[in-house]
Amino acid sequence: MFSSISAFISKFRRSEDGAVTVDWVVLTAALVGLSIAILSQVATGAETASDKIARCSRIVGNQLLRDQSTDARSYEWRLARAQRNCGRL
Which top-rank group of organisms is this from (predicted)? Predict the structure, then answer.
């Protein structure tokens, strides 16, 4: 009984029939894991950037609307001021 189990294990270790399949499974799992890690970092960066863009849009909109009715300065001056304020974000 022991010799047949030993022979089976020895034959199994020498066999390379499923080695390519195992390699592909391991490589695919590594690729999927790496992709998930990269996408999570990109998503975080994109979310931060979009939050800053939204805040800057609110700043510019509020300043331009408020200044338009009360300030006789040029549109370019008001826009430059809004850009300076957005640069601080």
Answer: Bacteria
**Distance of CA 38 to CAs 24, 25, 28, 86, Å?**
21, 20, 15, 28
* DSSP line for 11-74: HHHH--TTHHHHHHHHHHHHHHHHHHHHHHHHHHHHHHHHHHHHHHHHHHHHHHHHHHHH--S-
Distance CA 3, CA 10 (A): 10
Cα separation, 65 vs 62, in Å, equals: 5
- Residue 30: alpha-carbon gap to chain centroid: 17
Q: Give the list of residues 6+ apart from residue 86 with CB closer than 8 angstroms, or none.
A: 55, 56, 59, 60
- Asked whether the CA dihedral 26, 28, 31, 37 is positive or negative, the reply is negative
- Output the pTM of the full model: 0.49
